[in-house]
Design a protein that fits this description.
Helix content: 25-40%
CATH class of the domain at 16-89 and 119-196 and 297-344: Alpha Beta
Radius of gyration: 25 Å
Structural class: alpha/beta
CATH superfamily of the domain at 16-89 and 119-196 and 297-344: FAD/NAD(P)-binding domain
CATH architecture of the domain at 16-89 and 119-196 and 297-344: 3-Layer(bba) Sandwich
CATH topology of the domain at 16-89 and 119-196 and 297-344: FAD/NAD(P)-binding domain
């Protein structure tokens, strides 16, 4: 039992489906109430899609597990109504330091510029994270969460899937139009369908030790290569909530996981590192680096997300963050299809876009693992020489890899994008996640991403204009009245007296940062997807171009 947290246990409840005699049919069933399954259920429910959420357990994560929540994940959680609580409960940080032997060789800042709502990362133990998501689930209609309902068999068909569900009262069956497996690395759904996840298991082991202590260390990520307290290996330290500190020790492939978890092995390692500082051991685990994925994340009416679809090494905080981005990518597409507003072909882009993301994450995780754990004497000499150079020469720091930290994927080659017709500079290319910026509005929005929301949105920039041309007003009104209404945001600079047009809202680019980050000039506009990725941009507003780009973004068949 942890000293700082007691796991809640949620009651098993018998479902009416168990007494219906015949399998009851549901539109969407999600298997796995971890971070990814909960995120996906919340997103779908907010979009008006009811879900059944099944979990074979009756509690949240045992142990801290995934603790680093990236800026992009926090922005997604803001849209789902959970961001503020995660940030309030967790520990924010952006600075990391790298050590070699007994000295610091350099430091880095993952978010050096101002004008962002969320920090680079927030550290919060997975059990707290899941509890905050469950609080949000309890506020929403349309989520039927069933604890101790574990899936044992799955039969897929063209029209959906039939599940056999085990409970304390015995098994029952239910049918669904769409099935989403968020049931972890060992995924019973994947195994039931005879599907495989392929990749690489790295020959090394790492010890996680969560330590409860009052320390005056700054809230930073510290990584040591070959430190004097753990020679020949690597160590990672960072802070979580409740004065709990995560410490990772590299052990080597020959280490016995069960032996290494014993207090008589763990405590001497910690004392060697922490000296005379008092601490209590909170939680211990041993893991092996694994990088693998399924070939495809969609199989007919069955989808895979999170660890069920792909596994990554923990260094770089890519596992849970990429899973949350899986949910973010799938929810809006599935909602449109379920509601009859988009063709089923749209769902194939979930697999193509998130396979690209998984490959990026696997590449970065593999490179980090190769650098942290050299596979030969020659590669170790190269690694150590790089670290020595990095202390004095900035160019060498780009070669040091202690775990490239999670970044959102840019879907640059997505079929949902419309190619640029005009010249732009900067990072906001089609496929990129939208950048945030401080704004002011009569409705109280303080940040651009909050104003964009979770639907198609058009961002139109008019600079300091006091009034809009008639054709722009007519276009804004038409977009708001279209069958798939586009939310229109008119962005101004301070000093403009522009009023909200019919069907649109005026925001003031309070510090001019949005104009810089999006390379805006008067007349420029961006079309954003419901997951707040850019799908098109122009230097002038043309209603027909916008409609074609939106059609392409829901069908992947139109040409702009």
């Amino acid at each position: 039992m942890l000293k700082t947290h007691s796991n809640p246990h949620f009651p098993y409840r018998r479902s009416p489906d168990q007494d219906s005699g015949e399998p009851t049919r549901h539109a969407v069933v999600i298997v796995g109430a971890g971070p990814v399954g909960l995120t996906l259920a919340i997103d779908l429910a907010q979009r008006g899609v009811s879900v059944v959420l099944l979990d074979d357990d009756d509690t949240v994560s045992v142990g801290s597990r995934a603790v680093c929540h990236a800026k992009r994940s926090l922005e997604i959680l803001d849209r789902l109504g959970c961001g503020d609580e995660v940030v309030r409960r967790g520990v924010s940080w952006s600075v990391g330091k790298v050590f070699f032997h007994d000295r610091q060789i350099y430091a880095f800042n993952l978010l050096p510029e101002a004008g962002h709502h969320r920090p680079a990362f927030v550290n919060l133990q997975q059990y707290y994270f899941e509890e905050l998501l469950l609080d949000r689930v309890s506020e929403l209609p349309g989520i039927d969460l069933r604890w101790r309902h574990g899936v044992s068999e799955v039969v897929a068909a063209d029209a959906g899937a039939r599940l056999t569900v085990n409970t304390p009262d015995g098994e029952y069956q239910l049918d669904c139009d769409w099935l989403i497996a968020c049931d972890g690395a060992k995924s019973p759904v994947r195994h039931a369908l005879g599907l495989e996840s392929r990749g690489q298991v790295f020959r090394d082991r790492f010890l996680i030790a969560d330590v409860l202590m009052k320390a005056d260390y700054p809230t930073e990520r510290w990584f040591w290569f070959d430190p004097p307290f753990h020679p020949g290996q690597s160590t990672l330290l960072h802070r979580q909530a409740d004065n709990v500190w995560r410490i990772d020790f590299q052990l080597g492939w020959d280490a016995d996981p069960e032996v290494e978890k014993q207090p008589e092995k763990v405590l001497p390692r910690l004392k060697q590192m922490l000296g005379t500082r008092e601490f209590d051991l909170e939680w211990v685990s041993v893991y092996t680096f694994t990088c693998r994925r399924m070939e495809r994340f969609r199989h007919g009416r069955v989808f895979f997300a999170g660890d069920a679809a792909h596994q990554l090494s923990p260094f770089g905080a890519r596992g849970a963050n990429s899973g949350i981005q899986d949910a973010d990518n799938l929810a809006w597409k599935l909602a449109l299809v379920v509601q009859g507003s988009a063709p089923e072909a749209l769902l194939e882009t979930y697999s193509s876009e998130r396979v690209q993301a998984a490959d990026e994450n696997i590449l970065n995780s593999t490179r980090a693992t190769d650098f942290i754990t050299p596979k030969s004497a020659v590669s170790k000499v190269f690694r150590d020489a790089t670290l020595s150079l990095a202390e004095h020469y900035p160019f060498a720091r780009k070669l040091v890899n202690s775990g490239r930290l999670s970044q959102p994927t840019v879907y640059a080659n997505s079929p949902l994008n419309t190619a640029d017709l005009d010249g732009f500079v900067g990072a906001m290319i089609p496929g990129a996640p939208a950048a945030d910026a401080p704004v002011e509005s009569t409705r109280g929005y303080g940040w651009l991403l909050d104003a964009l929301g979770g639907e198609f949105a058009l961002l139109y920039y008019c600079g300091t204009a006091d009034q809009l041309p008639r054709r722009i007003i007519e276009a804004i009104t038409a977009l708001a009245r279209d069958e798939l209404a586009i939310r229109v945001i008119v962005l101004t600079l301070p000093g403009s007296g522009l009023a909200n047009p019919e069907g649109g809202e005026v925001l003031c680019d309070a510090e001019g940062l949005a104009a810089v980050r999006y390379d805006l000039r008067p007349g420029s506009c961006y079309l954003l997807r419901p997951d707040q990725h850019v799908c098109a941009r122009w230097r002038w507003l043309d209603l027909e171009h916008i409609r074609k780009a939106r059609a392409r973004a829901i069908q992947a068949s139109e040409t702009a």
